Structure prediction request, 167 residues.
Amino acid sequence: MSSHPEHDNLSLPTVGALLRLAWQAFREQMYTLVREAGYDDLPPSHVLLFRYPTIADLRPSELAEQMGMSKQGVNDLLRQLEAKGYIELRPDPADGRARLITLTDRGSMLMEAIRTAAKQVAAEWARCVGHEQFEALRGTLVRLTAEYGPREAGPSRSAEPNSSQRP
Prediction:
């Protein structure tokens, strides 16, 4: 042990680091399941665009802002998704110069595959740590999201429906 206790704390991961590491593990497991479901034509960067809340009816500039990416980077990803038949970029009726992201049938099926994969990973994690502890974690995340989360999380600002509706 160090003679300076404050240095010992530097080796412990912060809550933010733990959330990031957990998200990376969750994302990797989810991506594997999505590929196994037949969506092996998309790299993780594309799959990550299909998230809660949906990208449908967003302008590419809004998506870029939400994701902390450049408009050019998001537009490159969107053009690739459009070429593969997952989305369409349609004129915004409110502003003819702007475009809106629209999910195609194939994009909607991918969205459902991602949601199914996320449920499967969550169920596996619940089995790993115990359902009660997992639900406590989920409840804490919902509460923190409601208090501090982004506006795009929806009216209730919770990340998912309540646990009685989820595995």
Q: What stands out?
A: Helices lie at 5-8, 15-36, 44-47, 60-67, 71-83, 105-129, 131-148. The CA atoms of residues 26 and 121 lie 7 Å apart. The longest helix spans residues 105-129. The two ends are 43 Å apart (CA to CA).
